């Protein structure tokens, strides 16, 4: 009689559960319990009673049975199944010895006890929800609209289309760029002349570039009888070059026109030395004209700073500085001479604008 009442009660509860939700049993396990863990018990019940157990984390709804699995004070596993009103339906205590691999076995034993209880009272898992009906077929496409008659031909109208006005462009070349820089150069000539110079350079660059430079070299001292002669060069140059863009920076082949001013001063001779000035020379200054072939490379950054390397092979008028001795005076051996050919390399760095 008692089993029959329980069966009727469970069937009624099953109807209420199916009316509220497809799940029947809500599992409660303390979160701090690790053997068996809440997830292990839920998975074991779902494997034996598919569609019956409420998934972990979902809210409990009215009409669901409550299954509590907890560890009692003696270390046993306490299993309590109650109806929605809290009345007990099943109580078991499992006395176990925990060890590695025992937790999953305890969860499966708990699920087996609940499954056997359902089968004994004649309860089956609720059926799965029927599949949703297939969507209705799409409506047939609308028939295409009837073709429209072609429009009547438009009357020919002669119109004059004005030619577009030409756009104003920059004159004929690239943007003009100006620069100013400081440079150092070293020169070696065929007469054994060696010197270094410091220069200031100005340049303007468009389709071609024009560069103007001037500076002063270190001095050279030569012996003259009982005295000394100091020589110094003041190089001036104007050159043109063709900018050729390459992967990094640009090449700058070009030509130059040179004017070297040579100053000389006699000292420590007691004022007994007199000078004679040839053509293009004054009492203390000589001028040497020349020309050169140049090849440069430069790189300009976006921060308006640039660097340039320059090599020049040049020719110039040459002078021999000689003493005159005897009566009548005759020329002695040269004490210093300017080169007629030379090679010069230079490095400069400066700013460009705009």
Structure overview:
The protein is built from 3 helices and 18 strands. The protein is mainly beta and 354 residues long. It has an 8-stranded antiparallel beta barrel with strand order 5-6-7-9-11-12-13-18. Strands 1-2-3-4 form a 4-stranded mixed sheet. Strand 8 and strand 9 (227-241) form a beta hairpin. The radius of gyration is 55 Å and the shape is elongated. It starts with a helix and ends with a strand. 21% of the residues are buried. Mean pLDDT is 79; it is low at 1-22 and 163-172.
A few lines on this structure:
The chain is 14% helix and 42% strand.
Mean pLDDT: 79
Shape: elongated
Count every beta strand, where a strand is a DSSP E run of 2 or more residues. 18
Radius of gyration: 55 Å
Approximate helicity band: 10-25%
Discrete helix count: 3
Query: Into which percentage range does the β-strand content fall?
Result: 35-45%
- C-alpha termini separation: 108 Å
Q: Spans of 5+ residues with little confidence (pLDDT < 50)?
A: 1-22, 163-172
């Amino acid at each position: 009689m008692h089993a029959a009442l329980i069966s009727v009660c469970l069937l009624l509860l099953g109807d209420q559960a199916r009316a509220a939700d497809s799940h029947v049993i809500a599992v409660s396990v303390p979160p701090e319990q690790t053997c068996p863990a809440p997830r292990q018990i839920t998975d074991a019940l779902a494997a034996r009673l598919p569609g019956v157990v409420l998934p972990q984390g979902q809210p409990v709804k009215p009409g669901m049975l409550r299954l509590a699995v907890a560890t009692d004070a003696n270390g046993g596993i306490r299993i309590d199944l109650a109806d929605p009103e809290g009345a007990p339906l099943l109580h078991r205590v499992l006395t176990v010895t925990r060890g590695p691999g025992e937790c999953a076995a305890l969860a499966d034993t708990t699920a087996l006890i609940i499954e056997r209880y359902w089968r004994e009272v004649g309860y089956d898992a609720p059926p799965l929800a029927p599949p949703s009906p297939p969507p209705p077929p799409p409506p047939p496409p609308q028939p295409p609209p009837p073709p429209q008659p072609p429009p009547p031909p438009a009357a020919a109208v002669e119109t004059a289309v004005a030619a577009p006005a030409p756009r104003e462009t920059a004159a004929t070349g690239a943007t003009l760029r100006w620069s100013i820089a400081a440079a150092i150069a070293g020169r070696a000539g065929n007469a054994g002349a060696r010197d270094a110079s410091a220069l200031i350079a100005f340049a303007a660059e468009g389709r071609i570039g024009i560069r103007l430079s001037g500076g002063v070299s270190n001095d050279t001292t030569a012996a003259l009888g009982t005295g000394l002669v100091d020589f110094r060069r003041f190089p001036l140059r104007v050159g043109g070059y063709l900018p050729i863009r390459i992967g990094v920076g640009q090449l700058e082949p070009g030509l130059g026109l040179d004017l070297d001013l040579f100053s000389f001063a006699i000292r420590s001779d007691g004022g007994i030395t007199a000078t004679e000035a040839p053509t293009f020379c004054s009492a203390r200054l000589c001028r040497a004209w020349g020309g050169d072939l140049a090849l440069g490379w430069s790189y300009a950054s976006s921060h308006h700073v640039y660097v340039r390397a320059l090599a020049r092979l040049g020719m110039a008028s040459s002078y021999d500085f000689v003493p005159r001795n005897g009566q009548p005076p005759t020329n002695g051996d040269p004490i210093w001479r300017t080169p007629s050919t030379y090679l010069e390399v230079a490095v400069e760095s400066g700013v460009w604008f705009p």
